[in-house]
Design brief:
InterPro entries: Bact_solute-bd_prot1 (IPR050490). This is ABC-type sugar transport system. By secondary structure, the protein is of the alpha/beta class. It is built from 18 helices and 10 strands. The strands form 3 sheets. A 4-stranded mixed sheet has the order 2-1-3-9. It has a 4-stranded mixed sheet with strand order 5-6-4-7. It has a two-stranded parallel sheet with strand order 8-10. Helix 8 (about 195-210) packs across helix 10 (about 240-250). The protein is globular and about 65 Å long.
């Protein structure tokens, strides 16, 4: 090689190094909070695609657990959030904190036309706040179902996916599982459960209640809007949930004093360890079991529905991704908005759907529909869609709690889901309180929380 070529080659290498150093020096860091701790790994992989396309931006992915939430909210309210983008606003964006998030109507959000629902008014529907859009959720709501270990169920000689179509079928299944559990030292519980106010007294409550003929939202909503007394037990659709769950508790199908069991440490850890065959949960339980044991096999079936309805959480603007307003005052604000837009692009939505199993409520024609292969979709959602459990229709509207949320008095404890209610539920399940008395507690708490809805 000639001396001239050596010099030119050296100069080229030097220029490349200088350019790389320049890019690195100019690289903007955007901190993103994973939608769930369980999804942090998948979301890092998705963001790596963005980073390759945008080498001047580095995405730092972090997670927060439920125990971290109060401290996180304190920093949000102080205007000093420890992140730029919050993957899931659930429990953090409230009436007291919503102004700390960017209104998407005030920035260049690129994907409004891709949504298959009225995304610009979704937040207003549950808060009453007009002209404010903090999130643009591209996914349908999550689903809850029974989840079970098929090998253990087979060992018990049972096949609930093929046989449970009515409430009496479920009663028969639980009775047989109880007999099996009583003689199998590995199985501690028939239907494992713990205390989680929102999951049990929102997701369980709504999804099980609406399977009864008079349990639909049209009969639930009047309770929340003050059009019917909670103490009118015969016309209170929630009576079905509490009656059937107490029946199951009295028969020993649920853990003793289940309302005192810690959700993650006792219930979820126990089910992952296969201390029970059966539970009732959303998508996260499937993910947690498979993360802990990749070889684990899970299956699912619907809570038997006499109404023909099966529950889906509404497309929620409070369980979606948002930018912190504080990030718009930082030097990396352009990088934050670029990352946020990409996270909602067809390319990213497809990858997110395939990673978590969420079904898009979004036009995917430019990239093709996602291939959903996650266990919950394959074993439960698709079978519902295919009619395996009979002719069922998804109920994906807003529940009464959602529609009344905008009227809730600031600082009031939630009527049903607050942790202080666990002890009250314990009294009911142990027979120390009647259903009528429990409904009186609800009525009193509702009146305190929603004074503007109380009929004068």
């Amino acid at each position: 090689m000639s001396k001239q070529r050596i010099i030119l080659s050296s100069l080229a290498c030097l220029m490349s190094l200088l350019l790389a150093s320049f890019v690195w020096a100019e690289q903007q860091v955007v901190t993103f909070v994973a939608t769930q701790p369980e999804y942090e790994g998948q979301e890092k992989q998705i963001w790596s695609v963005f980073e390759k396309q945008n080498p001047d931006i580095k995405i730092n992915v972090m997670s927060i657990n439920e125990s971290d939430t109060p401290a996180f909210i304190t920093r949000v309210v102080a205007g000093d959030p420890p992140a730029d983008i919050l993957g899931n606003t659930a429990g953090i964006m409230t009436k007291e904190t919503y102004q700390h998030f960017v209104n998407l109507l005030t920035v260049d959000f690129q994907w409004w036309d891709n949504y298959k629902y009225d995304v610009k008014h979704q937040y207003e529907k549950i808060t009453g706040i007009k002209d404010y859009v903090p999130t643009a959720n591209p996914f349908q709501g999550f689903k809850f179902s029974f989840i079970f270990y098929p090998e253990m169920m087979k060992k018990a000689g049972l096949d609930p996916k093929a046989t449970v179509r009515t409430l009496d079928d479920l009663r028969d299944l639980l009775a047989k599982l109880k007999a099996f559990a009583d003689q199998d030292p590995q199985v501690e519980y028939v239907w494992d459960i713990g205390w989680h106010g929102w999951v049990v007294m929102y997701a369980f409550l709504n999804s099980i209640t609406l399977t009864f003929p008079d349990g639909g939202y049209e009969n639930q909503i009047p309770l929340w809007m003050g059009e019917r007394k909670w103490t009118d037990v015969e016309n209170n659709p929630y009576r079905h949930f509490f009656e059937v769950m107490k029946e199951f508790y009295d028969k020993g199908y649920l853990p003793e004093k289940w309302w005192t069991r810690r959700w993650e440490e006792d219930f979820e850890a126990g089910f992952i360890a296969q201390k029970s065959i059966l539970t009732y949960h959303g998508p996260w339980m499937w993910d947690k079991v498979e993360a802990a044991n990749p070889d684990a096999e899970l299956d699912g079936f619907a809570f038997p529905s006499a109404s023909g309805k099966v529950w889906s959480y509404a497309i929620s603007p409070r369980d979606a991704t948002a930018m912190f307003a504080a990030s718009m005052k930082k030097p990396n604000k352009d990088a934050v908005l670029k990352a946020f837009n990409w996270w909602h692009s067809p390319e990213a939505v497809k990858m997110r759907a395939e990673a978590t199993g969420a079904t898009p409520a979004y036009d995917m024609s430019s990239v093709g529909e996602p291939e959903l292969t996650n266990s919950q979709y394959v074993q439960y959602i698709k079978p519902v869609n295919d009619g395996v459990f009979g002719k069922l229709e998804w109920e994906n509207g807003f529940a009464g709690q959602d529609l009344a949320a905008g009227f809730m008095k600031s600082g009031s404890p939630d009527v049903l889901t607050s942790d202080d209610m666990a002890e009250v539920y314990g009294k009911y399940f142990e027979g120390k309180m009647t259903l009528k008395e429990l409904m009186q507690v609800f009525q009193t708490r509702w009146e305190a929380a929603y004074p503007d809805l109380v009929k004068k």
